Amino acid sequence: METLRSHLSRVRIPEPSYRIYKQECCVSFSTPRSEGGLFIDLYSFLAFGKDYVMWNYEKTGNPVYLNIQETPKQVSESRPHKKPTLLAIGVEGGFDSKVPEYEETYRIVILPDFISLLYPSVELPEKVRLAVDGILAAVGAERKEEVAAWTADKKQVSPYALSLQQVQNGVKVPPSGWKCSKCDKVDNLWMNLTDGTILCGRRNWDGTGGNNHALEHYQETNYPLAVKLGTITADLEGADVYSYAEDDTVEDPLLAEHLAHFGIDFSSLRKTEMTTAERELDQNTNFDWNRIQEKGKELEPLFGPGFTGLANLGNSCYLASVVQAVFSTKDFQRYYYENVKLDDAFKQAPADPTLDLHMQLSKLAHGILSGKYAVPSKKGQDNEVAEEPKGKNALTSMLQGQDGIPPRMFKSLIGTGHPEFASSRQQDALEFFQHFLDQVEQNHVAAVGEDPARCFKFCVEERIMCSVSKKVKYTKKTDNILSLNIPLRAAVNKDEVAAYEKNLAQKELAGEKLSDEEIVRPRVPLSACLENFSAPEEVMDFYSSAINARTTAIKTTRLATFPDYLVLHMRKFVLAAGWVPKKLDVFIDVPDEIDISDMRSKGPQPDEQFLPETPDGIPEQVDSAADEAIVSQLADMGFPRIRCEKAAIQTLNSGLEEAMNWLLVHMDDPDIDDPITRVGNNETSSVTALNESDVETLVSFGFLPEMARKALKATGGDMERAAEWILNHPEESMAMELDVGACTQDTQAEVKYPDGSGKYRLLAFVSHMGTSTQSGHYVCHVRKNDRWVIFNDCKVAVSGDPPKDMGYLYFFERVPS
Asked: Where's the active site on this chain (predicted)?
């Protein structure tokens, strides 16, 4: 006790604002449940495992620690298993992980001799007791930073429900026998809570669902709320209420009153339909879910070095999949595992190692690659899924595998300052991959040693040729992913797809549904996607400095360097209504090896003439007169003269057909009827005063500042219409990017990046199941020792049938020459 009193100056009583770690070691994945428990420094409030606490003592000299150990309690009876309603694990409404309960024991430990004192004890100094009480009462920093899964799916009370005005039309809804009032649908029916009209729901991507009649009714009447018939029971909280005005599932606290208005006695109704959340879960647990997770196959769990899973923290599967793929590369393995010791990383870290990216990446690499945590779960027998016997599917058998490691500190640090990755929402794996590499690169700006993120970088060269002067310009930029459009026209099974679509239409007319086995998806070779990337592309409205006018140009894109690891991104998500990403339903035939040697750029050629430097100000219109013959012919067809003049000028009076094509493309432009602005005179069209905050908002969406200003001018300063204008005029955006590129040569183009052969072998791929990047689940497959391994969060096993045709991100490794 005297030894403890001599160290009271190294004990602090925590304030409410202090970050207190008490769930996980700062340099390893030790927890209070690990052997020896966890040691909390009573001065810095950082936590360390038994094998690492001496590192902290040697670095800081802090000798007094609170040791927390947790041991499992004996449970006399198993918990009842509930059916999941959320696509998540270990959270309310999700898959029950059946984690056993633990009891905690505490001791005060004094280093370096590990003198142990019981706690609680009245003999302890008051300062120590207050410090420990403060630690135990505080919410741990890990817990504060840990997010709950699918929080975005929690229903909010709709303001429309609180002020809903119901029509007095005498409509009474029977307890059964419902049918859509506009078609023959008898399922997926929604009753509008304003007028009682019963209509079918939205059509799904595969043709199932309804015929959109409930949505159309809202668009016609603006009646905002509808309840799904078949989900109404005595438990009104389970009823599915949808707000078309808010485009989301909502809570109606007055639902009982709203139902009574139409004579519905909810207490006697039984559930016959799935809610929207359940249907989404059901859709995600059929074909895609089963195929990507290899459900139905007996998978062999794997343990040992390189086979450590990552526990799902709630919507963190995107992070886990990307991390597994990235750490399958030799560069990241060398830099953060083979060439760095944890104690050296800790010594070099600042006072708080939880805020040091190098420390946390080293911790993560050692956790994943060492094999220390890839051991059979001690609670395997306690965690079997209740409703399915062991071995029936991959999910069940793999739950008998390992616990994995929770990347809490890494997730908290990598997401700091980022509005999305710091949140609990599901994210796009592509966006996280690029954010991850950006953070690694920034961390190495002033660091000694090679930046491991360079292994993904390459130089892209774009060649632009003016269609009139035939002069060219070259621009270069660096990238770390090759994003590929998917040309559905190149599908190798067009006949089968056409037959499927015909069969689908017939089934819909008959009110029938297709089974998963009957669905036929377009199958596009990866080679077609690569060819499409390199194919010449016509650019409209390109400003040519050679002729001082806008014309068309031909753009070709090649790679100036080939990276050590080539990441291909398949553009499976397109923007649908409301700017919501929707998934393109397609298979990609991906071979184990590819050769992209023909995609290498050749650079400027001796016989090429270059475009002059682009002037600082590019005129919106050119100072030339329209060919009266072309204008007259177009006017005779009924087009307004101002439009005819613009068409002739913009096509450089090259002919009637060219002018007609331009006019047909641009006839819906908001500024199509504005007066023509001529360079060098004072005649200008009306100019809208721009709100720079609107410009900044559009720029935050990823649009160029020049494009944002042009769109706002074209739409009278209406930001929403401006965004739609940009999306509806991709050729304008492309032309402006090229114009800007002429005078903003990439200064990093001269930086030397890894280069070599164009022959690659597939190393890993990340697959996504779900309808958009904002929902669903990610899984990673990695080739290890010439066999495929599936990493599904904490579940790791030999892959029986890797779904290579369903990938979203593909990681290729250069084949040694």
From this structure: 317 (nucleophile), 777 (proton acceptor)
Preceding amide of 120 cis, omega within 30: yes
Q: Minimal CA–CA distance to 120: which of 138, 107, 102, 135?
A: 107
What type of residue sits at position 474?
A: Y
Question: Do 321 and 451 belong to one domain?
Answer: yes
H helical segments located in 681-807: 692-700, 705-714, 719-728, 730-743
778, with CB counted inside 10 A (0-12, 13-18, 19+), is buried
Whether residue 581 is contained in a domain is answered as no
Do 408 and 507 belong together in one domain? no
What is the mean predicted confidence (pLDDT) over 358-371? 96
pLDDT digits (tens, 9 = 90+) for 11-66: 999 987 788 999 999 999 999 999 999 999 999 999 999 999 999 999 999 999 99
What is the CATH number for 26? 3.30.40.10
Count of domains forming the chain: 4
Helices then strands (H, E): number in the chain?
A: 25, 27
* Residue ranges making up the domain that contains 440: 316-376+402-455
**pLDDT confidence of 504, banded at 50, 70, 90?**
confident
Q: Which of 25, 317, 459, 466 is catalytic?
A: 317
Return the closest-CA partner of residue 406 out of 90, 766, 776.
Answer: 90
Residue 534 sits at φ, ψ, to 5 deg, of -90, -10
Q: How confident is the model at residue 701, as a pLDDT?
A: 62
- In the set 358, 435, 777, 781, the catalytic residue is 777
In this structure, is residue 672 part of a structural domain? no
Which residues line the annotated binding site for Zn(2+)? 180, 183, 200, 213
User: Catalytic: 317?
Assistant: yes
Asked if 324 and 436 sit in the same domain, the reply is yes
Regarding whether 477 and 427 lie in a shared domain, the answer is no
pLDDT higher than 70, residue 570 = yes
Domain check: are 434 and 467 in the same one?
no
**Residue list for the binding site:** 180, 183, 200, 213
- 542 with 416, same domain: the answer is no
Q: Mean pLDDT in the chain?
A: 81
